[in-house]
Amino acid sequence: MNSALPASQKPFIKALNGEALPRPPVWLMRQAGRYLPEYRATRAQAGSFLDLCYNPDLATEVTLQPIRRFGFDAAILFADILLLPQALGQELRFQEGEGPLLAAIRSEAELGKLRPEAIHARLEPVYEAVARIKAALPAETALIGFAGAPWTVATYMLEGRGGNDQAAAKMWAFGNPAALDRLMALLVDSTVSYLDRQIQAGAEVVQLFDTWAGVLPDEQFQRYCVLPVKMIIQRLRQKYPALPVIAFPRGAGAQYDGFAAATGATALSLDYTVPLAWARDRLWSKHPVQGNLDPRLLVAGGPQMLQAVQRILQHFQGRNHIFNLGHGILPETPPQHVEQLLRLLRGASMAA
Ligand code: CP3
Fold first, then answer.
1. Catalytic: 156?
2. What is the C-alpha to C-alpha distance for residues 229 and 264, in angstroms, rounded to an integer?
């Protein structure tokens, strides 16, 4: 099915390059996932979530499932932000109902056990999946590669799990900032190298997920969220000057303002708390934005959901907006609600 368009002619990438389109391109964070029965079947076939991530055939299959079913404008590589710490040598497992569990790093001395030079041996199946996905995508569909932003990846590496106010990583930030800088530098290097390989394999855009950006005071936000993301983008652009990068500093609130200028990100992915009028006037006025329907509204469906979608469309009418959720799609989402959403978006004219 593949005679792919050049990246610059795909609607999603046109929007990232600042073009206003007749309708907003759309994809959904976590679009490949448990809300789809075909995903649950492939995951069962793989054995576990991690087995699925490291199986290029099956990872390709689940990446393509939502594209086949819904025709989204972009596919996102099926993987996880925690594959990188695992490739660095940290023990990782996913406990049913509990989420990720890592063997937490408890001291600065333990940073010495991480092995940046070893990551590609472990991550090779991920690059293989990128190449296969690229070869199988419909001509107009863009391919997004991704990584966690260093701060969020560090919160899991130091805490061993999510939740709990990111206490462990914050204790490093406040108690031994030089040690946390050391971990950040290591994560910046390995993330650049990881994303570079995804791009070589065919990723056309990269998104950096900073899920826990919203827990830091201003000074630490600059040091651990802004600076590492800026360094990653600078280094990728030395090699790929036109690379579009989407940053998702979830929960950053007022810190969203100026984030793209400070980091060099092409576009910002908005969490669902960001007020639309403010986003239009302070953010969209400077660069494209992506977002930001509350994923819980997509579970609820009905007129409330459709009204919320209309509100988002009205705020960015005639503008280079990318429709998405404000965080990942929830497993209990009925797939018919996604169909309703798409009918509304595809009927929508963005002409001013
Ligand atoms: O968006 C996509 O379709 C691409 C794949 C993708 C996954 N995780 C698959 C996944 C992406 C981009 C991620 C990013 C990710 N992973 C983030 C950042 C974005 C966010 O959601 O905040 C984070 C923090 C993680 C770490 C992670 N992975 C957690 C906390 C969990 C458990 C929570 C949950 O939803 O179960 C995961 C598991 C995970 N990653 C699943 C999927 C499809 C569910 C695994 C399953 O099949 O059981």
1. yes
2. 9
